[in-house]
Amino acid sequence: MTLTELFNYQKFSTCNNKTIFFKTRSALILDLRNQIREKIGKFIMIVNFDKLCEELEKQELEAPNGVASPTTYAQLLAIYLYQNDLCNAKFLWKRIPQNISSSNPEIAAIWAVGRKLWKKDLPRVFQTLAAYHWEEPVATIMRALEENVRERVFNLIGKSYSSISIDTVVSTTWLSKEAVLQMCRDRKWELNEDGITVNPAPPVQPAPLHTSSEDQLFKLTDFVSFLEN
């Protein structure tokens, strides 16, 4: 534990000659605040992409002669991939006029990612994403897609392995070793003393369907207020 981390913990007791540390109240409040910010950010992103998807679908339907602009096709195709709606993505790719798809490398690059997703070749998804220099407004969607796919990879590892080498996680997720170690700590995965392997934990089960994102945010906010008062 680093010196910076020690400021966020207090020594509680010893058990079997091991010192036990617990997070201080201020550190707990800070963690909860960060969780709230993260949930708000993800909630806003999902809502914005859903609205943008509806607008783009409308633009395609109302386009003169049934042919939309390359920007419309590119964004809509990227959003379908972000939503993991691979069927709609494939149908869209097939109905994009060939002269548009062939003269717009970004659209072809988006679907190259889609083909990897269709084959469930998740590690190759990261390689394909990194192979192209995305331009706005598509770049924002592709970054969100990359985060989604990486989250899925970590969840699959958590479900499938009781022990896995850190190097394997690095090669699978296309993250640096330092970033992988931080992600493992965030997920409470046990880092083994050999420094080579990690013991994944199954992902936390999602909240019941009747519990909305807004309800979760309100509960976290109320809990932070309770701790501060």
Explain what this protein looks like in three dimensions.
With 229 residues, this protein is mainly α. 66% of the residues lie in helices and 9% in strands. The protein is built from eleven helices and five strands; from the N terminus they run H-E-E-H-H-H-H-H-H-H-E-H-H-E-E-H. The strands form two sheets. Strands 3-5-4 form a three-stranded antiparallel beta sheet. Strands 1-2 form a two-stranded antiparallel sheet. A hairpin with a 5-residue loop joins strand 4 and strand 5. It is elongated, with a radius of gyration of 22 Å.
Condensed summary:
With 229 residues, the chain is mainly α. 66% of the residues lie in helices and 9% in strands.
Class by SSE composition:
mainly alpha
End-to-end C-alpha gap = 30 Å
Largest sheet: 3 strands, antiparallel
Total DSSP helices: 11
Please count the beta strands (DSSP E, at least 2 residues each).
Answer: 5
- The strand order across the widest sheet is 3-5-4
Helix content: 55-70%
